Structures are given as C-alpha cells and as structure tokens.
Amino acid sequence: MIALLQRRLGAPLFAKRLKRQTDKTIRFLHQGKGVFRLERLIPFDSLLSAFFQFFGIREIMRRSFLDVRVVSQDWILPALPEAFEGFRLLQLTDLHCDLDPALTAVVVDLIRASPHDAAVITGDFRNGMGGDHTACLRETRHIVETLAPERWGILGNHDFLEMVPELESMGLPILLNEVTEIRRNGQSIWIGGIDDPHFYQTHDLAEVRARIPSEACSILLSHSPETYNEAAGLGFHLQLSGHTHGGQICLPGGRPVVVPCRVPRRFVVGRWSHEGMQGYTSPGTGGCGVAARWNCPPEITIHSLRSGK
Ligand SMILES: [Fe+2]
User: What domain range is 123 assigned to?
Assistant: First the structure.
C-alpha cells in the first residue's frame, strides 16, 4: 500500500510529505527546538476553552458550532456541457471529525435533506495533529456513507497520508494530484484534486491540469485558497477550498480575528474571482481546536452549475 501511495504522489513529493509529517509530529509533541516553549506549558486550545467557560459563553459558542447551515451557491460556467445543466455538487470541508462527535449526526441529517448529484470533501478530516486517527475515521465513515455515490476527497494539512487507504475503503476516493471525470449522456466535466498546498506543499497543479482535456469544464479541489493565482493561470474554471474556517471566531460582521494562511482578505471566505477563474472558500462544516464558533456559521455548500446559455 505504501508503494502504491508513493507511485500515486510521485517519489519526490511522497518523500517531502513523509518528512513534513514527521517534523509536524515532533513539533506537536514539543520535542523540537527550545526548552521553554509557551505552548508546552499552556495548551492553547485548553486555555481558550477555559476562557470561554470562565465568561459563561462556552455552551453558546458550541451551539453556534453545531448550528450548521445548508448554503446554495449558483455558478455560471460557460464551458459546462448541456448534460450538466443544474448539476448540484455538495461540498463539505474542515470536518475535523474527532473534535466533537455531536457534529456527525447534525451533518448526516442535513445531507439527507439536501439532494445532490455528487459530493466533495476538501480536506481536514482530522482535528488532532498526530497519532491515532481511528476516532476521526469512525465519524467520517458515517458522513461519507450518507453522501451521493459519486464522491471524492482531498487531504488537508491536518491529515496524514496513511489515512488514504481507510478513506478509500469507505468509498471516498482521495485525489492525490489526480483527476476524475464525471460523465452524463456522453458528456463530461472534470474534477482535479491536489494534495495539501498549505503545510505539506506537496501539490502539483500543473500535473493535475495536464491530465484534464484543455477544453473541458474543470473544477479544482484545493484545501486552501492559497493556490488561487497558479490555478487561474493554468485555466481552471472553478476552485473550491476551505481551510480558513472563515476565521471561526469572528468580530461582528464576520470579520476574522485570525486567518490561518496568507491570502488577501477577499479569498478568506465566500465567493471570489481571479483572472477569469471563479472560486469559493467555504467557512467550513466543522471547526478545529475548540468546538466553538462566533459570528461565523458553519455550512454545507450546494454548488449548482449552469452554463448561462
Ligand atoms: Fe486546514
């Protein structure tokens, strides 16, 4: 299985990802540089949780975390073939399934009530930054089995490569710089999925684009919006991302306090466009660190595709 993953990702990117996974684990276990590390003494997530508890708002913020909405987004894609008029692509992202198992039933119920033709999960299945991923995959399985049979995922910066065989065994093919073709009545659209561009940077957009016929309607799954410039340059039509959680805990008006990647504000959450490519950064279906949200509702997104003709 390891040899297969190595072949799929390519030897150089495979080696880069394993090294970074190891480095990440070492950092998480605080065995890296420095003796007196603040995060070693005070776990930040616990501190934040205690802060919310102290001010009596922890339960309110958890209710916001579990108050997942179904949001519709309509897209005009001129390259869309006639057979895909009105095609509904459901997006989940940043589930971080091991953070609060109560999220699973909420998401499952909403998916059941949301008709869709295909589904994608754009990374960060896991909250924990290392070690065992059994609890995460147990919750993920319940969600995946509720989705339409045509469904794909990509890995995020919280996910280890070793999760791929188990995710695929539950019927969720993971696109590791790979593509898939969706066919209807002899016509096709293509979905390309890259490996995590944020932390591991083992993505290969050019390879993915090269595997898609040049005139075909193409949708890119990229865990983080950080790829917007390169993806637009390569001619993708629509990019779907997550990772930012929209800030997760925001000021009134949804203004994020902290954004976990360096992109201009307009790419942090919601719809955007860049040099002819359209894009969407979901605020996330779950959240990470603390099961809390404020001024930033979590969502399941239904992307409806139209040609505009
Ligand atoms: Fe992420």
Answer: 58-306
pTM: 0.92
Model confidence over 214-235: pLDDT tens digits? 999 999 999 999 999 999 999 9
User: What is the pLDDT, as a whole number, of residue 26?
Assistant: 63
83 conformational bin, left if phi > 0, alpha if psi -120 to 50, beta if neither: alpha
Q: Ligand 1 center to residue 118 CA distance, Å?
A: 22
Average pLDDT value for residue range 248-256: 91
Specify the CATH number for the domain of residue 198: 3.60.21.10
Calpha distance 96→266 (Å, rounded):
24
Residues within 5 A (CB) of ion ligand 1: 124, 156-157, 243
Structure tokens at 140: 């993920």
CB 301 within 8 A of CB 71: yes
CA of 190 to the centre of ligand 1 (A): 24
Q: How many domains does the chain have?
A: 1
Residue 215 C-alpha to ligand 1 middle, in angstroms? 31
Q: What is the pLDDT, as a whole number, of residue 259?
A: 87
Please report the pLDDT score of residue 270 as a whole number. 98
In a domain, 263, yes or no: yes
pLDDT at 53: 77
- What the block records as the tokens of 50 is 């205690």
Residue 48 lies in a domain: no
CA of 124 from ligand 1 middle (Å) equals 5
Q: Is residue 275 part of a domain?
A: yes
- Other residues' Cβ atoms within 10 Å of the Cβ of residue 28: 14
- Residue 17 within any structural domain of the chain: no
Tell me the β-bridge partners of 72: 302
29 C-beta neighbours (distance < 10 Å), count: 12
Asked if 307 contacts 78 with a C-beta cutoff of 8 angstroms, the reply is: yes
Tell me, in angstroms, the distance from the centre of ligand 1 to residue 84's CA: 30
Ligand 1 centroid to residue 156 C-alpha, Å = 5
Q: Ligand 1 center to residue 186 CA distance, Å?
A: 36
* Residue 288 CA to ligand 1 centre (angstroms): 9
